[in-house]
Amino acid sequence: MAVVMIGMAEVSVVDFDTLPRFEKGQETGRFHFGGSMHCLIFGPNVDVRFEPNAQPRNEDPVPVLGKLATAVV
User: Fold this and answer.
1) Domain extents for the chain?
2) Residue 20, preceding bond cis, omega within 30 degrees?
3) In 3-state terms, what secondary structure has residue 7?
4) Is residue 25 within 8 Å of residue 34, measured between CB atoms?
5) How far apart are CA 45 and CA 73, in angstroms?
6) What's the rounded Cα separation, in Å, for the pair 54 and 65?
7) What's the rounded Cα separation, in Å, for the pair 20 and 28?
8) Farthest CA pair distance, the chain
9) Which residue from 41, 34, 40 is spatially nearest to 8, judged by alpha carbons?
């Protein structure tokens, strides 16, 4: 799995605490100064199972820190 952290505005900063590796559930860093996003990239043998309330067709928002999906190897 790879994690891509994206600072989405000219003044955004991604501040990492631990590089290049981290453990499950460990805080890795934080975003500063504006909009930011992250992207998870999984290998071809990983089955990503999305939660029903996280599907784009659902109009209800997913709570902050809400479960979006489970990755099964």
Assistant:
1) 1-41, 44-73
2) yes
3) strand
4) no
5) 6
6) 12
7) 10
8) 37
9) 34
Per-residue pLDDT of 4-63, as tens digits, reads 877 666 656 777 777 677 777 777 777 777 666 778 888 889 999 988 877 666 677 777
**pLDDT value of residue 17:** 75
Q: How far apart are CA 5 and CA 11, in angstroms?
A: 14
Strand, helix or coil at 13?
strand
Residue 38: DSSP 8-state: E
Residues in the chain: 73
- For residue 4, the one-letter residue type is V
* Torsion on CA atoms 52, 57, 63, 69, rounded to nearest 10: 40
